[in-house]
Amino acid sequence: MALAQAQAQAAQLKKVKKQKVLLMGKSGSGKSSMRSIIFSNYLARDTRRLGATIDIDLSHVKFLGNLTLNLWDCGGQEAFMENYLSQQRAHVFSNVGVLIYVFDIESRDVERDLATYVNIISALVQYSREAKVFVLIHKMDLIQSLTREEVFDRRVNIVRRKTAEAVAIVRKQKPEQSPGTPGGAAAAAAAAAAALAASSPSSILDIDIDMQLFATSIWDQSLYKAWASIIHDLVPNLGVIETQLASVGVAIDADEILLFERTSFLVVSKWTSREGDNNPFGDRFERMSSILKSWKHTCSKFTGTPRNAEQFSDLEIKMGTKFSMFVTKFTTNTYILVCMPPGEARFNSAKLNVAAARPWFRFLDGPVIAPSAGAGSSQHLLAHNSAGGAGGVQSEANSRPLNI
C-alpha cells in the first residue's frame, strides 16, 4: 500500500503544467504595470516609463519548477478588443485556464468598459467554459480611504450583474449589441452562442462562472493579495505542498509558516497554528510579500546585482519576548518564512528542522521521483524538545518523521 501511494505521488509530481492566462482590460488600466511589478521586479515608480501594449504581448513565466504561465497581456485599445472578439476569437479564448480582467476605477466610460467585459465573458464561455475569472478593480489608491470599501462593493455588484448578463446571453442564444459594442464583435458573439447551443444543448443551462474580485493598487500590498490568490489556484501539487508544510509546522511548534516563490515573493502556500489564527492582521501575508520584495530591491541597490538575481539567503528577526522569525532560502525556487514564540533554543532547532525538511520539497524545483516507502522510512525531521526548552534538538531516534 505504501509503495503504491509513493508511485502515485511520483506520477503526480512528474506532471508539468502549462497554463494559459489572459490579462485583459481597457488601455491604461494598469495591466502591464502590475505584471512588471510581480514578475519582472519593477518598483511601482518604475512602471511610469512603460508604454501601451500593442496587440498581444506573449510571455512564458516560469513559476516554481513545474509551472509555466503562458501569459497573454492583451492590448486594451478598441481596435484590438474588436479583433480579439471577432477575427481572433477562437485563437485568443481557446484553452484558457485563467482570465484576469482589470477595471480602471477612474475610467470615464464605465458603460463601454462593462459592455466589452460582457462580450469577453461570452467568448470565454464559448471556448473555455472551465476557466477561472479574476476581476481586479484597479487603482483603488485614487479613491479616498473613507469611501474606498463602499466604492469597491458597488463596483463588485455591477460586475457580478454584468457577468450574469453575459451568461444569460449565451443561454438565450440572442446576444444583443450593447451601447458602444463593436458590430463585428456582436456578430461574432451571436454566432458563438448559436454554435455553443448546437454543440452542447444539454449543458448550456449549467454554465457557471468561477469568479473572484479584488481591489488592487500598485502602491500597496493589495496587488500581492490578488496575484497570490491567482497563482495559488494554478500551482500543481498544491495538496502535497500543504500537507508537507503542515507537518513541518507541527514538528517545530511554529505559529505560522509561509512559502514564497523566489523571484516574485508571492505566497505559494501557508500554514497557521491555532495560536497563529488569533493574529488580528488579516493582510499580514501580502504585507510580508511586499516587505520582502522591498528588501530584495534594497539588497540589489547596494550590491549592484540584477533584481532578478538571488539577493539574500537568510533574514532573522528576534523581537525579545514577543516572537522570533526567520526567512531562509528553502529550495532553488522558494523561500520559507517561519514565525514562532521567542526562545534561542527553539529558534536554532527550528532552523535545523527546516534544513532537514528541504529534501521533501525538492519537487518544487521540477519533476522528481518521489522517495520509495523504504527510503522514506529512514528520513526523519528533527523536532525540538519543547518540554525541555534548553534541551535543544532531540536525537534522531526520538524525532518525528514527515508524513509524505
From TrEMBL:
A single MF term (Gene Ontology): GTPase activity
UniProt keyword terms in alphabetical order: Cytoplasm, GTP-binding, Nucleotide-binding
Claim: Kinase is one of the keywords in the record: no
Keyword Cytoplasm: yes
GO cellular component: fungal-type vacuole membrane; Gtr1-Gtr2 GTPase complex; nucleus
GO biological process: cellular response to starvation; negative regulation of autophagy; positive regulation of TORC1 signaling
Subcellular location: Cytoplasm
InterPro entries on file: Gtr1_RagA, P-loop_NTPase, RagA/B
Family classification: Belongs to the GTR/RAG GTP-binding protein family.
Assembly description: Component of the GSE complex.
PANTHER family on file: RAS-RELATED GTP BINDING RAG/GTR YEAST (PTHR11259), RAS-RELATED GTP-BINDING PROTEIN (PTHR11259:SF1)
Function: GTPase involved in activation of the TORC1 signaling pathway, which promotes growth and represses autophagy in nutrient-rich conditions.
Name of protein: GTP-binding protein
